[in-house]
C-alpha cells in the first residue's frame, strides 16, 4: 500500500518575501519592470501582485547590510508568464526600459522545458522571467526531466508577440519557482524531499531541481557561490521567506508534528531549512 504524499500534487510556489534596504526604489522597480500592482502596504512593507494574486512582499529596513554573494538565500525569484507571446511583450517592454536608461543587464536561457530571461534588481536579487513549453514537449528519462541551458531564440520570442504591447502583468502570472543558494546541494535536496515530499526531478551534482506533481521544478537548490556555508548568524538584505501553497496541510502537519522549529499557524506551517531559508506552507484554495 503506497503511503499518502506529504503534500498534494497541486502544491506550488507562492509569494516570495524580500528584505530590502530601499523600499521605495524596489517597489517602483518591480512595479515598472513587471507591471505589478500594489495590493497592500504599510510604513515598512509593500505587497505587489497581479490581478489580486500576491507575488512579492517587500519589507524595508534601511539599516540592513547587503548580502554577500556567498551568503545562503535567494538565487532568483522566477516569474512565470502564461504564453510565449506574453514573454515577447514583456521582453520588448524591458528593452524599452533599457532604451530609456534603466540599464538592465539581460541574460537568456533556453532550458528545453522553458525559455527564460534573467536579470537582477537594484539590490542584487536575482530575477527570472519565463514561459513554459507545453508539458508534452518535455522529455523525461528514468524520472528525470531533461534540461539544458541554450541561447533563447529572442527574435522568435519577440515575433510571438506580434505588434501587441505589454500592458502590465497578464492574468495568470505566477511565481513558477524559487531558486535558493545553500551550503550543500545534495544535503539540501535530501532535506526538502524528506520535509516537504518534493521529488528530485533533475540532479546536476552542484545543483538539484525538485517539484510536486511532475513539474520541471518548483524549488531549485545550488551551491555555486555558497558551498560550505551554514545558516547566517546575522540579518542582511535579501530573502525573507518563500511561500508554498497547497490545498491540504493535514499530512504535512502530521509528518512535522513534534519537530523542533516548526510554527503552526492554523492554516500555515513555517520552518527554516538548515541554511536559514524560511519556508511557509499555506493551505489555500487552488
From TrEMBL:
Keywords: Aromatic hydrocarbons catabolism, Dioxygenase, Iron, Metal-binding, Oxidoreductase. InterPro entries: Glyas_Bleomycin-R_OHBP_Dase (IPR029068), Glyas_Fos-R_dOase_dom (IPR004360), VOC_core (IPR037523), Xdiol_ring_cleave_dOase_1/2 (IPR000486). Its cofactor is Fe(2+). The keyword Ligase does not apply. It comes from the Bacteria. The keyword Cell cycle does not apply. Residues 12-132, 174-286 form the VOC domain. Belongs to the extradiol ring-cleavage dioxygenase family. This is VOC family protein.
Amino acid at each position: 500500500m503506497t503511503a499518502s504524499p506529504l503534500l498534494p500534487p497541486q502544491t506550488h510556489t507562492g509569494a516570495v518575501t524580500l528584505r530590502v534596504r530601499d523600499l521605495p526604489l524596489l517597489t517602483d522597480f518591480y512595479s515598472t519592470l513587471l507591471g505589478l500592482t500594489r495590493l497592500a502596504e504599510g510604513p515598512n512593507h509593500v505587497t505587489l501582485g497581479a490581478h489580486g494574486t500576491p507575488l512579492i512582499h517587500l519589507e524595508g529596513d534601511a539599516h540592513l547590510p547587503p548580502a554577500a554573494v556567498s551568503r545562503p538565500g535567494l538565487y532568483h525569484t522566477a516569474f512565470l508568464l502564461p504564453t510565449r507571446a506574453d514573454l515577447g511583450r514583456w521582453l520588448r517592454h524591458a528593452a524599452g526600459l533599457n532604451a530609456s536608461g534603466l540599464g538592465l543587464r539581460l541574460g537568456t536561457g533556453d532550458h528545453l522545458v522553458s525559455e527564460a530571461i534573467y536579470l537582477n534588481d537594484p539590490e542584487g536579487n536575482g530575477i527570472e522571467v519565463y514561459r513554459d513549453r507545453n508539458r508534452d514537449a518535455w522529455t523525461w528519462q528514468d524520472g528525470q526531466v531533461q534540461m539544458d541551458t541554450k541561447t533563447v531564440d529572442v527574435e522568435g520570442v519577440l515575433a510571438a508577440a506580434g505588434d501587441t504591447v505589454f500592458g502590465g502583468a497578464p492574468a495568470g502570472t505566477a511565481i513558477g519557482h524559487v531558486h535558493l543558494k545553500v551550503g550543500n546541494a545534495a544535503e539540501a535536496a535530501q532535506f526538502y524531499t524528506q520535509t516537504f515530499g518534493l521529488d528530485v526531478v533533475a540532479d546536476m551534482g552542484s545543483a538539484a531541481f525538485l517539484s510536486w506533481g511532475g513539474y520541471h521544478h518548483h524549488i531549485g537548490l545550488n551551491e555555486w557561490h555558497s558551498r560550505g556555508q551554514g545558516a547566517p548568524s546575522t540579518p542582511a538584505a535579501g530573502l525573507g521567506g518563500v511561500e508554498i501553497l497547497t490545498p491540504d496541510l493535514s499530512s504535512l502537519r502530521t509528518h512535522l508534528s513534534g519537530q523542533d522549529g516548526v510554527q503552526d499557524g492554523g492554516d500555515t506551517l513555517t520552518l527554516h531549512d538548515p541554511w536559514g531559508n524560511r519556508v511557509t506552507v499555506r493551505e489555500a484554495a487552488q
